[in-house]
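User: Teach me something about this protein's shape.
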Amino acid sequence: MAAALLGSAPAAQAWAPVQPLEIAKRFVAKGQWARMKSYLCCEVAQQARAQTLGQQIPANLERKCQLLQQDDASAVVAVELRDTASTADFYLHFVKEADDWKLQAVRGLSSTNLGQQMLQLMQGMPDAEVSRYNQTHPDADHTFTVENLKLWVGADARLIEHFNRNRAGFEGVVRTVQTRGYLAEPTQEAEQQANTDPAIKTQLQQLYIRRLTRRITNCGSCLEFLIGGVTNDTVGFLYQPDPAEVPAMDPGRIIVIKPLGGGWYLYKTT
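Assistant: First, the predicted structure itself:
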C-alpha cells in the first residue's frame, strides 16, 4: 500500500484506489509526500500547497489515525496529535471522485482558545472572588464552571474518559427524561421544561453538562448533552440507540461523531 502512495503500481498489477485511512496516515506523517496533490481536492488542495499537515506540525508529536466512517461516497478519519504535555484532535473528511479517494477538508473545534482563556481566568480567582462568584451563579458555581470548561477544551480522550467514568449518571438522565415524557418533540418549550426540572438540573450539574437539547445536530430523535461552545462551534455527547437515526458527519456542520457504545456518541459541530 505504501508503494501505491509513493509511486505508480506496476502495469501488470490490478489497480486499487488508495483508502482514506492510508491517505490520512501519509498526510500526517513527518516526511515529504511527493504525490500529495494527487490525493487532495476542494479546500485542502488550496491550503496544502507545499507541505502536508505532518510537515507543518512539530516533529516530536505522536500521530494516531482512526477510521470512523466510510461508505461508497465519503469517509472520516480522526487524527490524534499528542506530546507529553497536550493532545489535539483533528478530523479529516474525504470524498470519492470517480474511483479515487480525495481529502477535502480538515476540521477541528475552533473555539477552544476562548475556552482556555476563560478557564485560566476562573482558576486564577482568589478565594474571596470565588465566594462572590458562587453567590451570583447558583446554577453554575465555580467548581461546575471550571470542570465544564476543562471538558469543553479537553481532548477527545479526556471527554471519553469522563463519559465512561460517569456512564451510569448519563444513563440515569435518559431514564428520567423518558419517564417524565420530556423532549417528546424537539421544541424549545420542551427543552425548557426538561432543563428546569430540579432532578434533571442536579443530574446535569453532577456531570458538568450545560443543558439537554435536540436541536444542535438537527436530529429530532437524538438526545444531546451539551458541554459547551460558542454559537455553532459546540461539543457534547449524544444518545441515539438506533444507528440508522444518527446524523451523518460532514465538514460544513457535524465534524465528528465518535461511537462510545450502547447508543452513545461524542459529537462536535462547527
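Now, about its shape. The radius of gyration is 21 Å. The first strand starts at residue 62 and ends at 70. If you'd like, I can walk through any region in more detail.
User: That's plenty for now, thanks!
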